[in-house]
């Protein structure tokens, strides 16, 4: 037993000493610095105990929504490793090689092209893949709010009544898999293009940290699903979607509905007219109104969306406006509408 514990501790130590440890350290620093910055701007008593209460809000962490978040996060992690991650990677690679084959059919064998990968090639490849992923996320997220079946799955994420960091992973596994398949269909051709012209390009790592992990740290994916209202300032906010902008996306205020869909970049929201700039330090209430209560258990988060989708497929969206564009799905006709709001107070 002692040997097993020692082996486990050794594995954890080795993991934390490598790039994963550096990424974890950077993540913790962003959380701590964000908390201190927001605390210093708040009306809370400027004491260590006040800072502790602000960083660890007991009422928030003991909320039913927070408990559901934590339990859902633990169970969902194993499903991510077994299903979602392999699916996304395989779809991207398959689409990449299909695109490569199509280019080879049109332009002939690419064997005459140099296989040397320069630093510039790696940089441009990484930038284009990040842009493709970001655009893909924006498009899919927009559809989640407009197609009733996708919205029923996406309600899991929006049902959180408090934001506790792990809320970022409050995503139904089926929704996660579908999102990754979509990403593969969008980013695969970009990968195929580079595969044809640069053979087997490799994305950059910075100090051994995967570029996508670094992206999540830079855009503060954890922080933006907390109570910490962080803005990057008017200039940076023109390009990067700050945490406060995303917190507005979860707001129950009707004027905030279907705004700020972006992942890392705010340019897509600006381009398509879905950007909404919050007032400085503006507070929001979160959730789906009274409907949120149905989702505050692990069972509800996994099963309730499937039940509602089944009812939707049988009966159709009762609340779809007459102007909805019909989409045929099996024997059910589903309307593409703006996000359903009848349940939101």
Describe the structure.
This protein is mainly α. 58% of the residues lie in helices and 4% in strands. A two-stranded antiparallel sheet has the order 1-2. Strands 3-4 form a two-stranded antiparallel sheet. Helix 5 (64-107) runs parallel beside helix 8 (173-198), helix 6 packs antiparallel against helix 8 and helix 7 (148-158) runs antiparallel to helix 13 (298-315). The longest helix is centred in the first third of the chain and has 44 residues, at 64-107.
Concise structural overview:
The protein is mainly alpha-helical and 345 residues long. 58% of the residues lie in helices and 4% in strands.
Total helical elements: 13
Give the tally of β-strands.
4
* First-last Cα distance: 54 Å
- Beta percentage is under 5%
Question: What is the fold's blueprint, element by element?
Answer:
Elements: H1 2-17, H2 19-41, H3 48-55, H4 58-61, H5 64-107, H6 119-144, H7 148-158, H8 173-198, E1 205-206, E2 209-210, H9 211-218, H10 234-237, H11 243-249, H12 267-272, H13 298-315, E3 325-329, E4 332-336
Antiparallel strand pairs: 1-2, 3-4
Keyphrases for this structure?
globular; two-stranded antiparallel sheet; 345 residues; mainly alpha; 4% strand
């Amino acid at each position: 037993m002692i040997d097993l514990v020692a082996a486990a501790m050794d594995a954890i130590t080795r993991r934390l000493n490598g790039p994963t440890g550096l990424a974890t350290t950077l993540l913790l620093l962003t959380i701590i610095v964000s908390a201190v910055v927001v605390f210093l701007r708040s009306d809370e008593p400027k004491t260590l105990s006040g800072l502790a209460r602000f960083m660890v809000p007991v009422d928030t962490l003991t909320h039913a929504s927070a408990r559901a978040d934590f339990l859902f996060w633990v169970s969902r992690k194993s499903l991510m490793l077994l299903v979602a991650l392999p699916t996304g990677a395989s779809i991207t690679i398959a689409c990449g090689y299909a695109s490569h084959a199509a280019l080879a059919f049109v332009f002939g064998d690419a064997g005459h092209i140099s296989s040397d990968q320069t630093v510039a090639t790696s940089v441009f490849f990484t930038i284009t893949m990040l842009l493709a992923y970001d655009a893909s996320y924006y498009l899919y997220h927009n559809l989640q709010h407009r197609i009733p079946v996708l919205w029923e799955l996406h309600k899991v994420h929006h049902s959180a009544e408090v934001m506790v960091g792990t809320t970022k992973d409050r995503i139904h596994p089926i929704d996660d898999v579908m999102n990754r398949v979509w990403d593969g269909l969008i980013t695969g051709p970009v990968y195929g293009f580079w595969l044809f012209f640069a053979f087997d390009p490799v994305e950059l790592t910075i100090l051994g940290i995967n570029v996508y992990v670094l992206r999540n740290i830079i855009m503060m994916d954890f922080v933006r699903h907390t109570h910490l209202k962080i803005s990057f300032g008017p200039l940076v906010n023109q390009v990067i979607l700050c945490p406060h902008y995303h917190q507005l996306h979860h707001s129950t205020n009707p004027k905030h509905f279907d705004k700020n869909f972006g992942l890392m970049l705010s340019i897509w929201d600006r381009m398509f007219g879905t950007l909404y700039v919050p007032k400085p330090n503006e507070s929001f209430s979160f959730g789906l109104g009274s409907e949120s209560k149905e989702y505050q258990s692990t069972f509800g988060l996994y099963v309730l969306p499937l039940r509602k989708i089944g009812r939707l497929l049988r009966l159709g969206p009762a609340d779809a406006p007459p102007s909805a564009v019909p989409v045929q799905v099996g024997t059910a006709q589903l309307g593409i509408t703006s996000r359903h709001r009848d349940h939101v107070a």
